[in-house]
Write a structure and sequence with these properties.
By secondary structure, this protein is an alpha/beta fold. Helix content is 47%, strand content 28%. A hairpin with a 2-residue loop joins strand 3 and strand 4. Helix 3 packs antiparallel against helix 6 and helix 4 packs antiparallel against helix 6.
């Protein structure tokens, strides 16, 4: 209802916006994986001392390229391509502070947590096609935006970025990643017999 009211009050703007539709393009999509880093810290947080914690940071960043067309005293901002950076860029392994760094048990626990990191990375690899499809559907849903001034082009680009991030396909993509990750993490812990750790005692 709000959209209808806005168009009624600003008929010239709506007409200009509709004129931008003819410039709509099928966007090119390129999926990139972030370079990740891993840090290891001793922690005093309550935890099972035989199972340290991994904190993983999932990044979703869209580098957008647009075409600009003059139209009816303004400009049409048209999404042309997207370089999507999606994946994990930071891992923090927190090991119970009771374990001395480089001790036998410390290294055994560290090796176990590295299996979890490998799982995080493998999920992104395995879902690459799904991720690309989600980004494409999100990008392709964004219609050209009319602005009356060149000064507003950057705002339009920000609006496109926001629309992609908040699109249902983007939300579903992150839910898929998190669900797959939860399953793999549980599987790793269920299959862990702590053989390497038991050798330390």
């Amino acid at each position: 209802m709000l959209k209808k009211i806005i168009c009624f009050l600003f008929i010239p703007f709506c007409a200009y916006a509709n004129n931008c539709v003819e410039y709509k393009k099928i966007p090119e999509i390129n999926i990139l994986k972030p370079v990740y880093k891993t840090s290891v810290v001793s922690s005093n947080e309550p935890m099972d001392k035989f199972h340290a914690n991994v904190v993983a940071t999932l990044v979703e960043d869209y580098d957008i390229a647009v075409d600009i067309f003059s139209s009816d005293g303004g400009f049409c901002v048209v999404l042309k391509s997207v370089d999507a950076l999606i994946g994990y860029n930071d891992f923090s392994i927190k090991i119970d502070g009771s374990h001395q760094p480089n001790s036998c048990e410390y290294n055994a626990i560290l090796n176990h947590e590295k299996k979890h990191i490998d799982a995080y990375l493998s999920v992104i690899d395995d879902l690459e096609t799904d991720i690309k499809n989600s980004v494409f559907n999100s990008a392709n849903s964004v219609m050209p935006i009319f602005v009356s001034s060149r000064d507003d082009i950057e705002f339009a680009i920000g609006d496109i970025n926001q629309k992609m991030s908040e699109h249902s396909e983007s939300i579903l993509m992150k839910q898929k990643i998190n669900a797959a990750m939860e399953i793999r993490n549980k599987r790793i812990d269920q299959n862990e017999d702590n053989h390497e750790l038991k050798l330390c005692f």
